[in-house]
Design a protein that fits this description.
The complex is a heterodimer of chains A (285) and B (278). Chain A is an all-alpha fold and 285 residues long. Chain A contains 13 helices and 2 strands. Chain A has a two-stranded antiparallel sheet. Classes of the chains: A mainly alpha (285), B mainly alpha (278). Chains A and B meet through strand 2, helix 4, helix 5 and helix 9 of A and helix 8, strand 3, helix 11 and helix 12 of B.
Chain lengths: 285, 278
């Protein structure tokens, strides 16, 4: 272990705990613990050299008898036994970033790696709300502030592009997928994925994860404020809707400035089918 | 009195057997009646109509033959494989996976356990096509998985959480379910946190409603659009692909944590196997 990350240290500390428990010999570990403990010993001693082993030793006797059997071991074979001191969150981070479950070295279309896709940035961390967790106003304000700071408006102001190009972009769900079947951007440019979640024009079926945007420009007009707001929402929607499900199309470089202008034209240009469609024909509402 | 009790026992067993032996489409129909807002369950009447003729049955027939056939360098069948209910016991085994296995010290799902048995009992190696090829109607993996999982059709999901590692993996899976990452900031919860949401025309299952979630996790299922029987691991892979995540190693602990959580979320609801999905 040349470099100890917080996760690795915590995980090793959990392994350490097992070894400590066994040395103390207060109770018999479960059937398999005896078999797996020796494999964890090197990791534990590595961690002991770097990270405070003393408090762990001290803490061990304080544990109620019977709970020390909850331990975690990691080795080449993966996760064995269970953690007593490792939270679910830490274990999840370990499984995602350190257990070789994901292909962390997989190249991405943007020239980074699989690991870069999986490591969370501030907004992803703040917005990973668990079951029943509500976004508090302080966090919401923080997310909004972080997001607003990322928005780069085009030089010379926000202008509409070509709605026909915008229509194709809005429909396309292609791009940036990796996993077992990476999208080749040389064969086809990445799309904007709008219809995945939004109803836009009524000639095609859109999803319902986001709000319907049919007649977007017809309802809102094309004032400078609306253009700036719309650009901002596409670029980084968290600025206006903290912890929204909407991807950060500009801030995460899914779309270029020019592509955003085209998508905006599709939304706002009076000639776009988004605005010429009859409201009564709206679906997915 | 004892004699009377013994006489009624076979009847009780027969009734239990009858419930478990109902067709997958009957299991689905009962869920539709039970669920308050069954948009996800009823989104494809065509698929419902085709369920009695599910091509997955043919795949499972091949699986039964493979299961009983002596194969591999050790010339053994899989009839001694222990999926958690004892060697060779398939009935009800799948709805109690993933679970902790003392012989490996790991929590394993159906696919991982099957691979383990093919290696230890039959002597296959990781690079042998019997193990390496994980997907498609013509793969041993899908034939065997479909056959084994079908023996739990109609039974309630009941993955054990009594071992601390089972609990730890399930809990880590829950964190992963809500964890946002990737190029598009997606978590599983982005799409599976409410009832009736759609991606384009596809209705998405809600993890929070066990009556609809059970269909979502009922794999193997024949995917009509792909003309292939697919596994839980394959479903995971496709979700992660759409989420713009990197590739996931089949049978990895990360995959099993997610499957542990999603199976627990359907607890108590009957498995629909083989299912037919879009």
């Amino acid at each position: 272990m040349s470099k100890i990350t917080p996760i690795a240290a915590a995980v090793a500390a959990a392994s350490m705990f097992l070894v400590t428990g066994q040395v103390i010999g207060q109770q018999a570990p479960p059937a398999t613990a005896g078999a797996t403990a020796p494999k964890a010993a090197p990791a534990a001693s590595d961690a002991a050299a770097v990270k405070r082993p003393e408090p762990l030793k001290k803490r061990a006797p304080e544990k109620a008898p019977g709970q020390q059997t909850e331990v975690l071991i990691m080795d080449a074979q993966g996760i064995r036994m269970a953690p007593a001191t490792l939270s679910a969150k830490l274990l999840a981070e370990y499984l995602i970033l350190e257990s070789a479950g994901f292909d962390l070295a997989q190249p991405t279309q943007e020239g980074t790696t699989g690991k870069d896709r999986l490591v969370q940035d501030d907004i992803q961390k703040l917005c990973s709300l668990g079951k029943g967790e509500q976004l508090d106003s302080k966090t919401a304000a923080r997310v909004s502030e972080l997001a607003m700071a990322t928005i780069k408006y085009p030089e010379g102001g926000v202008k509409l592009g070509d709605w026909k190009k915008g229509r194709d972009l809005a429909w396309s769900g292609f791009g940036f997928r990796t996993a077992h079947n990476p999208d080749d951007h040389n064969k086809q440019p990445p799309g904007a994925n709008c219809y995945n979640c939004h109803q836009l024009a009524t000639d095609r079926t859109g999803g319902t994860i986001g709000p319907p945007l049919t007649a977007y420009g017809k309802l809102r007009g094309s004032s400078e404020e609306i253009l700036k707001y719309t650009y901002g929402v596409i670029y980084n929607a968290h600025a206006y809707f903290p912890c929204t499900n909407m991807p950060r199309m500009g801030a995460k470089a899914v779309l270029t400035e020019e592509q955003i202008a085209d998508v905006m034209a599709y939304l706002i240009d009076p000639a776009s089918p988004v605005n010429t469609a009859a409201m009564s024909g709206m679906s997915g509402m | 009195m004892l004699k009377k009790a013994l006489l009624t026992l076979p009847i009780a067993l027969a009734v239990t057997g009858a419930i478990a032996a109902q067709a997958p489409e009957d299991v689905l129909d009962r869920l539709v009646t039970k669920a308050g807002s069954p948009t996800y369950l009823t989104q494809s009447p065509q698929n419902r109509m085709m369920m009695p003729d599910n091509p997955a049955y043919l795949v499972a027939d091949d699986g039964e033959k493979l299961f009983k056939e002596k194969r591999g360098p050790l010339n053994a069948s899989l009839e001694q494989c222990d999926f958690g209910e004892g060697p060779g016991v398939l009935k009800g085994a799948y709805v109690e996976l993933p679970r902790y296995f003392a012989d490996t010290g790991k929590v394993m799902d159906l696919e991982t356990r099957l691979v383990y048995c093919m290696k230890t009992l039959q002597g296959f190696k990781d690079d042998d096509p019997q193990i390496k090829k994980r997907h498609g109607n013509d793969s041993d993996m899908m034939k065997l998985q479909t056959y084994i999982a079908m023996q739990s059709n109609g039974m309630p999901w009941n993955p054990p959480l009594s071992h601390p590692l089972e609990k730890a993996m399930r809990d880590a899976g829950e964190v992963m379910f809500y964890r946002r990452a990737g190029k598009m900031d997606f978590a599983c919860a982005t799409c599976h946190g409410a009832t009736g949401l759609r991606i384009r025309a596809s209705v998405l299952p809600n993890m929070g409603v066990p009556e609809e979630w059970t269909k979502a996790i009922s794999w193997p299922a024949f995917r009509v659009g792909q003309e292939n029987v697919r596994s839980s691991q394959h479903r995971l892979l496709e979700c992660l692909w759409q989420m713009r995540y990197p590739n996931l190693k089949p049978g990895s602990d990360a995959s099993i944590a997610l499957i542990s959580f999603w199976t627990d979320a359907a607890r108590g609801q009957p498995a629909i196997i083989p299912d037919m999905k879009r």
